Amino acid sequence: SAAMECWERLLAKQGDHAEALSILAPYYESQGRWTDFVEVLEAKLEPGNDTYASDLVTLSQVYAEHLKDAAKAFERGLVALSTVPTRIDLLQPTFAHARDADRLEEFFEECTYLVDLVSDEQLAYLRIIAEVGAKHLGRLEDSLGYYERILELDPADVSAVNELCAIYEKLGRWDELQRAYERALEFVTGSAREAELLASLAHLSANVL
After folding, report:
1. Residues 59, 29: contact at Cβ < 8 Å?
2. Cα angle at 121 between 120 and 124, to 5 degrees?
């Protein structure tokens, strides 16, 4: 429309014009003009702004879904997570973007910093840190400490115990593996997993210990 053309001309002359940015962003979004949309939203980003975190999340989603730019999606998602560490709903999508952009090391390091800035959300961080470290980066020793922290907060987390067992086995740390099996048995009474653990413990005792 003629009005939008005027706003675009104004923005071309003054790239940080707040009113032009706030009008053109939703217009570009409604038109599916995603390259223009992210350009405007990037220009609108202001760390002190009330919409800063939500704008970052929107940018991350648009980069991923519409522009197929995993690196940019990861970068914006990580800044959003760092800005509001309690937004644990951002952990999985940011992890996915990091994996697609081959930047899991950065994601891992940032999460190991953020986990100590939150309280109620610690388990969510610990679980994803341990998983990324053990299964994607091969950092088995680092992951052991995070699985132990998970079990301090949630002793009945059978998945964490199973992962501990797997890591101790890979590292050949048999005494610790035995303790991990015994710990797992406390929480799986009466299940098929109990029989499996007992058999593993028997083999371990007979062949290694």
Report:
1. no
2. 140
